[in-house]
Specification:
heterotrimer, A: about 250 residues, alpha+beta, Ribosomal Protein S5, domain 2, five-stranded antiparallel beta sheet, 5 helices, about 30% helix, C: about 260 residues, four-stranded antiparallel beta sheet, elongated
Chain lengths: ~250, ~260, ~260
């Protein structure tokens, strides 16, 4: 946030530097069940972000000291590939990825029916293959789909989206330049059915009025992306039950 | 499966599937304390049955139930018990008192060792999901020979079929021994060529598990690929899937008892 | 619990098939699973590729940076290869610094590329003793279903053939392709169990394997790198047989790589 920039992030007609309107999301593409080894998986592209999520579990939590005798825990590992950013990132966790892993673990855990699996762990791995602003939202959104694909019992399918302020305007889903040179970023995750907030972070500077507007935009973005999550899951699972009385399906071959 | 409702659709976690105090949430469902309504917690097929609304899951790990017959693999050998990997969340202890042999303290590894496959029964699941297994029942034993394959545990009922129709169909065309564990592990034993066909057939059933007309298609496929012809008629009655409502789980268990053609 | 408690039955079954010269998935001893090579999948990298061998999935990305040369090679660029066995790839992989398996894997891939001289390091010198290009090859293992050695080697090769040196970004003139020799050596990996040697081991075959060997051969059939692993043994005639198979398979894979 707040870097110096000669570029006009938004023009007088309200067109953003990447051509979007203030209320417009980047393109989001979601595929379910793409990995062989993981119990559930999801590949997601969100603008220039490319994310792979894979879930294992519920399985016995290791080491034993992390077990909770009454419920399951969610252990998320958010990891960036060395080549996912312009300047090569040293492999392995750093302070930033540990913090993101923690807030995503907590956000996802909020919807899981954890009491069903005492002492177990749900291991959620998020691999950022290509990063372009908003990787935590893209990662959480992919992880939630992978959890549904893994059959983890949960109250809802969490979804994330950010809004922020760039070039003096409140805008939805900051792009790379807006993220680098804008005034504020507000990533949130929600449980779309109830509207409960699962994750919220903010950096930069917003007036209370701007915050309200930004929250509304991020929330709207979550609802839109949530529909795409459901569509992607149905694409995989709708095949599972044939429509009608089944005679047509029987003749298919 | 869905005697009481014509509604039978795929639902996702968080989807509203029922209302009213008279309806209760069953498998794959939960009641929201705030609004009193019932929502799905799993991806699955919704159905209403005897006052319950259920979501039969389409994915997920094996959730052990009492009396399930499962194929386990010994993962640890203790002084007076073994730990058995039953493809579930937690390893299940098998105590020396629950095996058909008299085992002296510290001599457990003489009977079962790390990596051995065993046919066991889930004899208790407590509130905190601690599972114990037993080998003290007819047919329960150590498995040797053959091969073990693993299918998605949620597809086991389909692999078995109504009253065992599907798995009997595979057996009748391949002349192999097949045991389907409720935990998704399947033991197959017989001639190499027949085993290959049986393995391929089960893979096909798994990948097409939720399509209709599968029994007919499998029959066709086995006519082409089977290594033997079924003895006598292919018992068409069995495939007509009598709509018994006496609980499929029970039927499936019977069906999973090992039989040889 | 460990998801890969290898059952005695699996081992016996694979050994029994081996006696008849067969494999569990019906492949012949020297055949590979389906190979898919997709270069240029990551925009943030200077070169990249996604490689699938059966269900095994690896991404390779190349980052080019400017650094100082090693004192003993003051006019040569630098190559560095890392591999991560990510916890997403297999239920037994844990997060954390690379263990010795990951290090062996990265070093074998590195040798296949470095020692073959396929990257013309002298052309990556900007100012001798001061500034050279550093070529970082990072292997991101996403799905492990056996034969990571070949999947990683192939992904690394496909990625370097896809690489652009970003001269313009560093005001060093125009961007250009990474200076490479046209014919790369290709690595093929084999494991031995029950008296047979099989190419491109699936994960179950690796789990029961007694010995493993990776051989890289070039377009002339010359041997360019080798690595034997595990505590089993090979005879010299077995090694010669493996080299012969590597020459055949390597030629086929080299063709696929060029087409990708």
């Amino acid at each position: 946030m707040g870097g110096k920039c000669d570029i006009e992030l938004i023009d007088k007609k309200g067109k953003r530097v990447d051509g979007r309107t203030p209320e417009q999301l980047r393109d989001v593409k979601i595929e379910v069940g793409v990995l062989h080894g993981a119990d559930g998986s999801c590949y997601l592209e969100w603008g220039g972000n490319k994310v792979m999520a894979g879930v294992y579990g519920p399985r016995e939590a290791v080491p034993r000291r992390v077990q909770n005798a009454r419920r399951a825990i969610v252990q998320c590992k958010y990891n960036m590939a060395a080549f996912s950013v312009d300047e090569r990132k040293r492999p392995g966790p750093d302070r930033r990825s540990r913090e993101i892993s923690k807030v995503i673990s907590e956000a996802l855990e909020a919807v899981v029916l954890t009491e069903m699996f005492p002492r177990a762990s749900i291991d959620v791995n998020i691999e950022i293959l290509q990063a372009e602003a908003g990787t935590r939202c893209a990662g959480l959104t992919a992880a939630a789909v992978a959890m549904a694909d893994a059959g983890i019992p949960m109250r809802d399918i969490p979804v994330a989206c950010a809004a922020g302020k760039a070039g003096g305007h409140v805008v939805m889903d900051l792009g790379k330049l807006e993220d680098n040179f804008g005034e504020a970023d507000l990533p949130i995750a929600i449980a779309p059915r109830t509207g409960e907030i699962l994750l919220m972070q903010m950096d930069g500077h917003l007036t209370p009025e701007e915050f309200e507007r930004a929250f509304q935009l991020a929330f709207d973005g979550c609802i839109k992306v949530g529909e795409l999550q459901k569509k992607a899951l149905m694409e995989k699972y709708a095949k599972a039950v044939p429509e009608g009385n089944g005679n047509e399906a029987a003749k298919e071959e | 499966m869905n005697e009481e409702t014509s509604e039978r659709r795929i639902v996702l976690p968080g989807e509203l599937i029922g209302e009213g105090a008279s309806l209760r949430p069953g498998q794959g469902a939960y009641r929201d304390r705030a609004d009193g309504r019932i929502y799905a917690s799993r991806v699955g097929v919704m159905g209403k049955h005897s006052g319950y609304v259920n979501v039969v899951p389409l994915s997920g790990v094996y959730d052990p139930q009492k009396d399930d017959l499962v194929i386990g693999i010994i993962s640890e050998v203790g002084q007076s018990n073994w730990l058995v990997n039953i493809n579930g969340i937690y390893p299940a202890p098998l105590h020396v008192n629950e095996v058909p042999w008299r085992v002296e303290f510290g001599e457990t590894s003489k009977y079962l060792n790390h990596g051995d496959a065993v046919l066991v029964k889930v004899f208790s699941v407590d509130e905190t999901k601690n599972v114990q297994v037993s080998m003290k029942d007819r047919n329960l034993r150590k498995l040797s020979g053959g091969q073990i394959i693993t299918v998605d545990p949620t597809k086991v009922p389909r692999v078995i079929g109504k009253s065992g129709s599907m798995i009997n169909l595979v057996k009748s065309y391949t002349d192999v021994w097949i045991f389907v564990g409720q935990n998704g592990r399947i033991w197959i034993s017989g001639g190499d060529a027949s085993m290959q066909v049986a393995i391929a057939a089960i893979a096909k059933i798994e990948s097409e598990a939720h399509t209709t007309g599968l029994t007919d298609r499998m029959k066709q496929w086995l006519e082409e690929h089977g290594t033997v012809k079924p003895a006598g008629d292919a018992k068409p009655d069995e495939f007509a899937a009598p709509r018994g409502n006496s609980g499929n789980a029970e039927e499936n268990k019977d069906a999973s008892e090992e039989t040889s053609e | 619990m460990s998801a890969t408690t290898v059952s005695v039955i699996l081992k016996d079954y694979l050994y029994k098939l081996a006696k008849e010269g067969k494999r569990q998935d019906g492949r012949t001893l020297d055949s590979y699973r389906e190979i898919e090579i997709t270069p240029g999948v990551i925009d943030s990298a200077e070169g990249s590729a996604k490689v699938k061998i059966g269900n095994t999935l690896v991404y390779a990305g190349i980052k080019m940076q400017i650094g100082t040369p090693y004192p003993d090679t003051p006019a040569s660029g630098v190559i560095s290869t890392s591999a991560e066995l990510l916890p997403i790839a297999h239920p037994d992989f844990e997060a954390g610094p690379p263990d010795e398996s990951a290090i062996e894997l990265a070093r074998v891939v590195d040798r296949g590329i470095r020692e073959s001289g396929i990257v013309q390091l002298d052309k990556l010198c900007i100012t001798p003793n001061e500034k050279v290009w550093m070529c970082y090859i990072d292997l991101h293992i996403i799905d492990h279903d056996g034969n990571l050695f070949d999947a990683c080697s192939l992904a690394a090769l496909a990625a370097i053939y896809n690489t652009t040196v970003p001269n313009a970004r560093f005001e060093l003139g125009e961007d250009c392709p990474l200076p490479l020799l046209p014919e790369p050596p290709i690595s093929c990996t084999f494991v031995k169990y029950g008296g047979i040697i099989v190419a491109d081991p699936a994960i179950e075959e690796e789990q029961v394997a007694e010995a493993r060997i990776t051989v890289a051969t070039d377009e002339k059939g010359d041997i360019r790198a080798m690595q034997k692993g595990l505590n089993g043994t090979f005879t010299f005639s077995e090694i010669k047989e493996v080299i012969k198979m590597t020459q055949d398979k390597g030629a086929q894979i080299r063709k696929m790589l060029k087409k990708a």
